[in-house]
Design goal:
This protein has about 400 residues and is α+β, with helices and mostly antiparallel strands. The chain has two domains: about 180 residues, no CATH class; about 160 residues, no CATH class. The chain is built from twelve helices and 15 strands. A hairpin with a 2-residue loop joins β13 and β14. The protein is globular. The model has no long low-confidence stretch (mean pLDDT about 95). The structure holds zinc ion (ZN).
Length: about 400
């Protein structure tokens, strides 16, 4: 297969980050990392083994077994057989995305990436200050930060091995991100709502699945290891989509809600107001606030997570009893509930996506994913008074099979 150009239309800006933690250009690694994350959740959901690629422990991470490969070659086996011998210690995720000794099955390169100025919208000054510090560092200067937004031209190049599989699995991960979640980093701030590219339309979730399942069933890839405790498994997942009339979001269209480059003051194609939706804003806004009113508990102990923290991620620091408290580094986790930035569907309607993973430790509160769905729904009903236009559970995504 030749190189393939992919035109990716973003509906909200992307955050791809990089070593310097800025997003002033597109960092391909940020997109690939995000696709890998979705693919891990998918493989776990399909009962395949996905290693913990972020682990410090090399025993936990996969690595191509080059000794087994050399041995097989010495014994006169074919190159393909020898490769398969080496792949016994490579899980289905690392097979596509690479690990020590095994290169990723594809390269992704940014060819043309339009950028726009970063800005946010919030109803509370305090939130504005916080967002400026998080994104603009010590100086809190976000005026000049740029983020990818618009039609991105990417180039997909398969490595010369299992090329068609590389394409379908890349498309599969991208499709799940586009249709049910988001792509890139800092998804908890609503970045990364994208439209699935037309050029990959031929790969359906069902066809991608069957190829992945077939690969797992062939049995030459790593199929077990230390179980990983993570809520990020599609079996724990639900995605909700709402159509919200524009006037219900008017708090976020007012000039005083705007922070960042003044060039974006008039921007209404998307509303970067997720901090208020997820945390707290003026009046009713804020899921964290709402949960507290419902007597969900947040932790006051830097070494423990409360129920709210397990759902929305812990606060990084807070004041309690006149003291500054900071969450234990090891307990820092991202939210398991994500809101996309609302983006325009037409003149009078915005699309809002909420998606979430159920943390097993929340079972006392939320018996199953349906209960998590109800909780998200109840909150959106409370702040926006709308019902979802679509609800998709991870199980439904996992059950999309060919001919089914
Ligand atoms: Zn692996």
């Amino acid at each position: 297969m030749e190189k393939m150009e992919i035109k990716l239309r973003t509906l909200t800006p992307l955050w791809t980050g990089g070593v310097d933690q800025t997003s002033d250009r597109l960092h391909e690694t940020g997109l690939i990392g995000s696709l890998r994350w979705w693919y891990e959740a998918l493989v776990r959901g399909l009962e395949g083994f996905a290693c913990d690629s972020t682990s410090e422990n090399p025993e936990v991470r996969c690595a191509f077994d080059s000794k087994a490969y050399e041995k097989a070659k010495k014994e006169g086996q074919s190159k393909d057989e020898a490769i398969r011998a080496g792949l016994k210690t490579v899980c289905p995720v690392c097979y596509v995305f690479g690990c020590t000794g095994w290169a990723r099955l594809f390269q992704l390169r940014a060819i043309e990436v339009p950028m726009t100025s970063l800005h946010f919208r919030t109803t509370l000054n305090m939130n504005g200050g916080w967002l400026k510090r998080v994104f603009g560092g010590e100086k809190g200067d976000i005026e000049n930060l740029q983020v990818p937004y618009g039609e991105l031209h990417l180039q997909f190049t398969p490595r010369r091995y299992d090329e068609e599989y590389a394409r379908t699995q890349f498309a599969l991960a991208l499709r799940i991100a586009a249709e049910y979640g988001g792509l890139g980093a800092r998804l908890q701030h609503g970045f990364g709502q994208i439209a699935y590219p037309k050029g990959l339309e031929d790969v359906s979730i069902a066809s991608g699945h069957s190829q992945l399942k077939a690969k797992i069933q062939q049995g030459f890839l790593r199929s077990n290891g230390t179980p990983i405790e993570t809520p990020f498994d599609l079996k724990n997942f639900v995605s909700l989509t709402y159509h919200v009339s524009s006037d219900k979001l008017k708090d976020f269209k007012e000039d005083q809600s705007h922070i960042g480059s003044s060039k974006k003051k008039q921007e209404i194609a998307y509303l970067p107001c997720v901090f208020d939706l997820r945390y707290k804003g003026e009046g009713k806004w804020g899921m964290r606030q709402w949960l507290k009113e419902k007597r969900w508990k947040e932790s006051d102990d830097p070494k423990n997570l409360g129920e709210i923290d397990l759902l929305l991620g812990p606060r990084s620091q807070w004041r309690s009893g006149g003291k500054e408290k900071k969450i234990d580094e090891e307990l820092r986790t991202a939210s398991r509930v994500f809101f996309g930035m609302p983006y325009c569907k037409d003149e009078s309607t915005y699309v809002l996506r909420v998606w979430a993973f159920l943390h097993p430790e929340l079972r006392d509160h939320l018996s199953d994913v349906a209960a998590l769905k109800n909780l998200c729904n109840e909150y959106i009903k409370y702040v926006l008074d709308v019902q979802p236009v679509s609800i998709v559970f991870g199980e439904q995504i996992l059950n999309q099979t060919q001919g089914g």
